[in-house]
Sequence to fold (150 residues):
Amino acid sequence: MSLSRREIEALIPHKHAMCLWDEVLAWDAQRIRLRTGSHRDTANPLRSDGRLRALHLCEYGAQAMAVHGGLLAGAPGAAARPGMLVALRNVVLQLDRIDRLPGLLECEAEQLAASDASQLYAFRILHDGATVAEGQATVMLGPPPPAHLA
Fold:
């Protein structure tokens, strides 16, 4: 089941240019796969000095987690629990910047652990089939939304 950028924006708080993913390719209860060309956009809000550094791929991974959380919460417009990225571990970047990559980026993210308070994911970002970044990210979850919003 694929989802469009518009459907992704309905699931996460990131809107317009700050929504980094263009399409969900597939997902299930443990994993998600997404695709984007937003790294080539000269208006990408993560750019500085005309460059988009590979370190920002961690934000791409974190947004993949948010999209997955939104999908797990239910239909578009359903209230997912807010989260805050609190830790990155084992991050490996294969290059220094990504704005010059000509092809699309894909992300594979897998939920490794989840509790009422936090979630741990592994993410891998690929360009033309080659891994350009990978790591693990931990998100602390906020309180559930009020029952009338859920």
Notes: The longest strand covers residues 130-141.
